[in-house]
Design goal:
Largest sheet of chain B: 8 strands, mixed
Strand content of chain B: 5-15%
Oligomer: heterodimer
Low-confidence stretches of chain A: 1-52
Mean pLDDT of chain A: 86
Mean pLDDT of chain B: 88
Helix content of chain A: 25-40%
Distance between the termini of chain B: 21 Å
Strand order of the largest sheet of chain B: 7-6-8-2-9-12-5-13
Strand order of the largest sheet of chain A: 8-7-10-5-13-14
Radius of gyration of chain A: 33 Å
Low-confidence stretches of chain B: 1-32
Number of helices of chain B: 11
Shape of chain A: globular
Order of helices and strands of chain B: HEEEEHEHHEHEHHHHEHEEEEEEEHEE
Structural class of chain A: alpha+beta
Number of strands of chain A: 16
Distance between the termini of chain A: 40 Å
Radius of gyration of chain B: 23 Å
Largest interface: A-B, 103 and 105 residues
Shape of chain B: globular
Number of strands of chain B: 17
Largest sheet of chain A: 6 strands, antiparallel
Chain lengths: 837, 486
């Protein structure tokens, strides 16, 4: 046996409605009412095949209405002044009086007409009319109360979004709430006589704003500091503080932009060199808060190859359909990412669902094309060439005779034209969606749809333009509003199906990246290395005075220009400490990869010599310490190899101390276990040699290393974030998309397969075990203190008495790591943890 | 037919669960998940009567050469100096239990179950220019040639989405034998081993190593059943104590709790044992124990017995390994046949003896065929991919089907209403061995498979306001004559 999942059945109705079809004019016949005749038919002629079931409007009714009635009575067609567009219109009826009486089919004009045998009266007038079964469905539907799918209409959307920006008049402030967004939204609530929204507590706000702006949980210390701060402006101060945390901000928003610009560190296309990343450029743009119009111009008309990956798309080896060439990908991506316009239909034929045509899709593609681009309809060449042009000639047009770079620059300017309100509306709508849980236009990729509050959308858009396209200003505007700082709407099945009515923010499920970052924060198990090629250095810091570097490039011999590919050696330095350092770190670069161990424990790894790695050195002990680095030369043939490592630590002495790779380091070809440590200690340590050819690497590595050290010396060794590493099984399972296509919205619900992964998967288990071992060792005064710490960090609140009792019941000092791991698991599986509300 | 859960009460609970699942599905739809698309005439899709409840795909990853497996041509034994172009098959043909069906040496066990099968020799694949295996595999598994503007669902996801699980506790889509990490073209493999635009609820449970499958449904290492159950209990009680109880009606809260309960149900169910092939009696185990693929067949049988909806077993695709013979093809195929022959035959016999074969559709297929001398298809501009290009045989290494061939390949279908002992279509008697009778495209093959499973090939979901069909553009036509009584 199987159970077919219930499906929504109304979808596609609007789409399939023949909105432009020419429709014949027909006169309706006079009313010929004959009650007894109808009753007779009902009583004798129609088998009660659906008596047992409720009529499902979408499933049972819509197809009948669409097939038999819609042509003359829906959309713009209202023969006999009768329209079936909405339930209200159907009830109201037309020139013959009310359309139907709910609960009383016998007295309903609609039903009488469909079962009439009078040719002039019966509906539909043509053909055989409705079958007995169909008539029964309609009878039962009326008798059961003529239920309608909330929000459903047969009317095709005739909405065309405005192009130009618009500055809405702000309604007067109410109850002193003078934030512009609140003025707009309060007016909306008042218009619907809705009660004002309930503001959230400081602790709810704290967790929400941290997750939304920087994607992290507030730490217990941050929580304590915020809650005990008496400053009435502390929320705004916190918002500004978070927005000014450039690295955390960039780490978090990288996920959003990678999705939107389909950028990734691995994926299809890379294997054949048909795709390039924009990671370095993108991260830098976020770090520096590059204005959005400038970002867009650099993506559309790349000043350097660093931002070219977006327009170049994915070049597949072999033949691809005319609808997926890189030129067409360009048109689709530009349309979707920047304008929320879906050109995927129009890439193949004139769209059935909106106004975009094949010509327009190919015109946009031709701007990018290096070659004359022939129009293809459904993969068949049409014999005409596309002329480079863009979608809104009202703002200007592309010079089709210009060269490609000029055309791209023209497009970049038109797209970011101050009069292009669709450009700003699209991005502010996406940001609103991220912060408030639902778009003002929804879904966010369908900007052809009407917003639920045009003033709100237009205000946000014009505010962005007024603030020089500073996206942080938009974020700030939203999160400083009372609207954002209100309790989330409770969304159940009925409110999902109903037309959207604003009732406060909606809860957001954590993204895969937010979830993992949060778990890593709780457990201290973040990865030691990242895959993203980014410079995680505060813009201000790079200008700071560089520390004096001591390290030199070393290998096992002075001329390592012809080292064997795959040659792997262990290098070490043993040094003595008089006291435990307050902080310590190393910066390491190795051509081509390394693993770094402190006192036999793996502490860092890296695989790109031109992207030096910052390795935190915790657990340096008093007495002798050993730093051991396994370096591996890459490639197949002979090629240069080298290792560079600078160590710094701070003790009670005023200045930072340290050392670097030099001739005092030792090497051996014997390698430790991958997890660290030798089974039998090597006896053949020899002194390393300083390389004469360090200029291969130094010009690139030295400044980057100095930046990292400046950052680290300021005490900011930021945790490696999930957005910076390649997707893994767990992240895929949690909804991180493979970025072959633009997927701008993440799934909102947990699936069973994810729950299996989270229940028994090795990855999460490893994090929890690691965290539990760490936490079990902490000097808690009692188990309750641990539980409270977990609640403060994970949920940003106190556990209640029942929770505290429940979770401490299996805990006793000394804490067992397994018991702690189970507590951690139970807490992170709570919807309260996985949903940002 | 699947085994009904023994405990009726538990069974009722599952039904209740599914009912709730259905309700939540509706809720999900409001949030932009793909919706079922109405047919053009305004009627909803009518699905054909299913002839099978479960589906097993036996995937010969890497390009299985038809002339050396299921479509014997002129056999020329190895001899130094023989011009390569004279060789058509490198294995002699053998008889099967069906007079009209000949296979090649090395498939003796399968030959004994061909009376339960329809053998298609005219499966035609597009020539995608430059041959990238994973791209053809993407096409075969989704019905769409990549790249596409949306992520296409795997056929297993279509079955999971449209039909739902057969046994509610069993994941509907299980994928055995293919690693998605640590192998070449892994990103490309991942791209189609997915639910695509469907929610990941309908995606695969991946079990790359059949021997380790039991661990995929077992508490993590170091956690015994008692602790696992206690942890779940702790979680449930914590939910009950939560000051956020008020939010439990919220659809996100509700669906999360439901998914966690669904997962726990499987992880604590009796069906879990199906994943543990070490529980198979030794005598039976031995019949499947030819390697990873053979043990995968055993796992597939156990899963189908427990009510899995769709299972795929792959001879792992790794570039230049297994069926992907660019040199030394004959020797490699001797090994491959040894690995697949007995387990596949045993799978068919076991399903039959358990009364499951008539409701289980088993399909053996590959992304394309191979040829001694022709790359792609006649007129193709694909690059020659053999690593040992020679005019005449010098060593054994040169003896084998080393070029990709898309003009005709073989598909075998057993059970699930398929007519037994039947040949469908034919390839040419002379090179090029293109399909000359009843060419069957991926689109129509999928329509045939979906037809058996009771899914209309015109089934469509609304994705980004466009219909996306189970078969390309809804055009798939089932090859009806494949079905019916012998």
């Amino acid at each position: 046996m199987y159970c077919r999942p219930i499906q929504a059945r109304i979808a596609g109705v609007e789409l399939l409605f023949p909105k432009n079809e020419s429709q014949g004019v027909r006169t309706t016949g006079e009313n010929h009412r004959s009650f007894w005749w109808v009753l007779f038919v009902v009583g004798l002629g129609i088998a009660p095949i659906v008596e047992a079931d409720d009529v499902d409007f979408a499933h049972d009714m819509v197809p009948i209405l669409k097939t038999h009635c819609a042509k003359c009575h829906s959309g713009m067609q209202q023969e006999g002044d009768f329209s079936i567009n909405t339930r209200e219109q159907m009830l109201a009826g037309g020139s013959s009086g009310p359309g139907l009486v709910t609960g009383d089919s016998a007295n309903s004009e609609l039903f009488r007409r469909i079962v009439s045998t009078d040719e002039g009266y019966r509906m539909p007038p043509e053909g055989q009319g409705l079958s007995a079964e169909q008539a029964t469905v309609i009878r039962k539907w009326i008798d059961q109360g003529a239920n309608w799918e909330p929000g459903f209409t047969f009317a095709p959307s005739s909405y065309e979004p405005p192009l130009r920006p618009r500055r809405p008049d702000l309604p007067p402030a109410m109850a002193g709430r003078d934030h512009p967004l609140d003025r707009i939204l309060d007016a909306e609530l008042v218009a619907r006589s809705q009660t004002p929204l309930k503001p959230v507590s400081d602790e709810v706000f704290l967790r929400r704003v941290f997750l939304d702006l920087v994607g992290l949980l507030p730490t217990p210390e941050q929580r304590h500091a915020f809650l005990s701060d008496p400053n009435p402006d502390k929320r705004t101060l916190l918002i500004d503080h978070l927005l000014q945390d450039e690295i955390a901000y960039a780490d978090h928003w990288l996920t959003f932009w990678n999705d939107l610009l389909r950028n990734d560190y691995t994926g299809t296309g890379f294997i054949t060199g048909g795709r390039t990343q924009i990671t370095t450029w993108l991260y830098d743009a976020l770090l520096r808060n590059k204005p959005y119009d400038q970002m867009t111009r650099e993506l559309i008309a790349p000043p350097t190859p660093d931002s070219a990956g977006f327009i170049d798309g994915i070049r597949w080896r072999g033949e691809v359909s005319a609808g997926q060439t890189v030129e067409i990908q360009f048109a689709q991506s530009v349309g979707q990412s920047f304008l929320g316009i879906n050109l995927k239909c129009a890439s193949c034929h004139d769209s059935f669902v909106d106004r975009w045509t094949l010509n327009e899709a190919f015109g946009l593609a031709a701007i990018y094309s290096d070659r004359p681009l022939e129009l293809h309809r459904c993969d068949k060449p049409l014999g005409t060439m596309a002329e480079p042009k863009w979608l809104f000639p009202e703002l200007g047009q592309i010079d089709s005779t210009a060269d490609k770079n000029t055309r791209l620059e023209q497009l970049a300017r038109l797209l970011t034209h101050p009069e292009n309100g669709r450009f700003t509306r699209t991005i502010v709508n996406r940001l609103w969606h991220r912060l408030m849980g639902r778009g003002i236009v929804h879904p966010t990729d369908a900007m052809q749809t009407e917003p639920w509050n045009a003033d709100l959308l237009d205000y946000l858009a014009i505010h962005l333009a007024d603030h020089q396209y500073d996206l942080k200003q938009t974020l700030r505007l939203i999160v400083t509003s009372a609207a954002y700082q209100s309790a989330v709407e409770r969304v159940d099945e009925s409110s999902v199906a109903a037309p959207y009515v604003y009732a406060g923010p909606r809860a957001k499920r954590l993204t895969a990246e937010q979830f993992l970052d949060a778990v890593w924060q709780l457990t201290g198990t973040a990865p030691v290395n990242m895959d993203a090629q980014v410079q995680r250095v505060r813009p201000g810091d790079s200008a700071a005075a560089p520390s004096q570097l001591r390290a030199q490039w070393i290998w096992n011999r002075g001329d390592a220009t012809q080292s064997q590919g795959g040659e792997t050696l262990a290098f070490r330095k043993v040094w003595s400490m008089q006291e435990a350092p307050k902080s310590a770190y190393a910066v390491v670069s190795c051509d081509n990869e390394f693993r770094c161990y402190l006192n036999g424990r793996l502490v860092g790894a890296g695989a790109e010599w031109d992207n030096p790695t910052l390795v935190p050195l915790q657990d340096i002990v008093i007495g002798d310490n050993e730093l051991l680095i396994v370096g591996r030369n890459g490639g197949n043939g002979a090629n240069p190899a080298g290792l560079w490592c600078e160590v710094r630590y701070r003790t009670s002495e005023a200045s930072e101390q340290g050392f670097g790779t030099d001739g005092s380091w030792q090497w051996t070809a014997r390698l430790p276990r991958e997890s660290g440590g030798y089974d039998v200690a090597p006896q053949d340590w020899q002194n390393a040699s300083i390389l004469s050819h360090s200029n291969i690497w130094a010009p690139r590595v030295t400044p980057l290393a100095q930046n990292l050290m400046t950052q680290a010396s300021n005490g900011e060794v930021a945790m490696i974030r999930a957005s910076l590493v390649k997707s893994d099984f767990l992240m895929r399972s949690l909804g991180r998309p493979n970025r072959d296509q633009i997927v701008s919205v993440r799934p909102s619900e947990m699936t069973t397969l994810e729950a299996i992964d989270l229940s028994i998967g090795e990855t999460l288990d490893k994090y929890l075990q690691g965290g539990a071992e760490r936490l079990a060792k902490e000097p808690w005064e009692n188990p309750g203190e641990l539980v409270r710490w977990v609640y403060h960090h994970a949920l940003s609140r106190e556990p209640n008495a029942e929770e505290l009792q429940l979770l401490t019941s299996d805990l006793s000092l000394p804490l067992q790591p397994t018991a702690v791991a189970d507590v951690l698991w139970a807490v992170i599986m709570l919807p309260e943890f996985q949903i940002n509300r | 037919m699947n085994e009904r859960p023994k405990n009726e009460l538990e069974y009722e609970m599952r039904r209740e669960f599914l009912r709730k699942l259905g309700a939540a599905t509706v809720a999900t739809l409001g949030f932009g998940a793909p919706r079922l698309f109405a047919a053009a005439d305004g009627q909803t899709i009518s699905h054909p009567q299913a002839t099978a409840d479960s589906c097993v795909v036996l995937w010969m990853g890497g390009g299985m050469a038809a002339p050396d497996t299921f479509d014997p041509k002129r056999y020329v034994p190895f001899k130094v100096g023989v011009p390569v172009g004279e060789i058509e098959s490198t294995f002699p043909s053998i008889d099967s239990v069906v007079d009209t069906i000949k296979l090649t040496e090395g498939l003796e066990h399968i030959a004994q179950v061909m009376d339960r099968a329809t053998l298609i020799r005219s499966h035609v694949l597009p020539d995608l220019g430059s041959i990238l295996h994973s791209r053809h595999q993407y096409h075969w598994h989704t019905g769409y040639v990549p790249p596409q503007t949306v992520a296409c669902p795997h056929i297993g996801s279509w079955m999971a989405k449209v039909l739902g699980p057969l046994n509610p506790v069993m994941p509907a889509f299980i994928n055995i034998g293919q690693r998605l990490e640590g192998v070449g073209e892994q990103e490309e493999l991942k791209a189609f081993t997915t639910a695509g635009f469907f929610d990941s609820e309908f995606g695969p449970l991946n079990l790359p190593f059949p021997e380790e499958a039991a661990q995929s449904v077992r508490p993590p290492a170091g956690m015994d059943a008692g602790r696992f159950a206690n942890r779940q209990k702790l979680f449930r009680r914590l939910v009950d104590q939560s000051p956020q109880r008020d939010y439990l009606s919220d659809f996100q809260y509700e669906s999360q709790l439901r998914s966690i309960e669904n997962a726990y149900r499987l992880l604590s169910s009796k069906e879990r044992e199906a994943f543990d092939i070490s529980l198979e009696p030794a005598e039976s185990f031995a019949k499947y124990d030819t390697g990873r693929f053979g043990r995968g067949c055993l796992l597939a049988r156990r899963l189908v017995e427990s009510g899995a909806r769709f299972v795929e077993v792959t001879t792992e695709y790794v570039p230049f390994l297994n069926w992907d013979t660019h040199a030394d093809g004959h020797t490699t195929l001797q090994r491959m046949k040894k690995e697949i022959d007995q387990p596949i035959a045993q799978l068919i016999l076991d399903l039959e003896s358990r009364g499951l074969l008539n409701r289980t559709l088993v399909i053996l297929a590959s992304e394309f065929s191979r040829d001694m001398i022709m790359e792609g298809k006649p007129g193709s501009n694909a690059n020659d991919q053999t690593t040992e290009p020679v005019e005449a045989l010098k060593t054994m290494k040169h003896y084998g089907q080393h070029r990709h061939f898309t003009g005709a390949s073989c598909v075998v279908m057993w059970g699930g209403g398929v007519r037994g002992g039947q040949l469908y279509g034919a390839s040419a008697q002379e090179r090029p061995f293109v399909a000359v009778e009843k060419p069957l495209s991926v689109t129509d093959l999928h329509a045939t498979i979906f037809n058996a499973m009771g899914i209309s090939p015109q089934t469509a979901y609304d994705v980004e306001q466009r219909p996306f069909y189970a078969t390309e553009d809804g055009k798939g036509k089932p090859a009806i004559e494949i079905f019916g009584r012998t």
